[in-house]
Amino acid sequence: MQPRASRDEIVGPYGEGSLKIRISAPPVDGKANQHLLKFIARAFGVTRSQVALLKGSTGRDKQLEITAPGRIPTAAQIDNRIVGQTR
């Protein structure tokens, strides 16, 4: 995750089994983490309570759990950048 970006977006694959995500929120007082969870919930079609941060609360590398995703972003959607507003 890259905090303090100009917009919220899934950039694309990052290594094996990971995604690079940009979030507009600053990494202060957990704001970026909360913003990330809301953004991921929207991208995967679930409620915020269905997304959990398992590891990485203080670093850029995070591990999330999404319970029963309503949709999975396709490679084409990621290539075209999934951009969302969570405010």
Number of strands: 5
Roughly what percent helix? 10-25%
What string, H for helix and E for strand, traces the elements in order? EEHEEHE
Can you tell me the CATH topology?
Conserved Hypothetical Protein Mth637, Chain: A
Radius of gyration: 12 Å
What features would you describe in this structure?
The protein is of the alpha+beta class and 87 residues long. It has one domain (9-83): 2-Layer Sandwich (Conserved Hypothetical Protein Mth637, Chain: A), CATH 3.30.1200. Helix content is 21%, strand content 23%. The protein contains 2 helices and 5 strands. The strands form 2 sheets. The chain has a 3-stranded antiparallel beta sheet. A hairpin with a 7-residue loop joins β3 (51-55) and β4. It is globular. The protein starts with 8 loop residues before the first strand and ends with a strand.
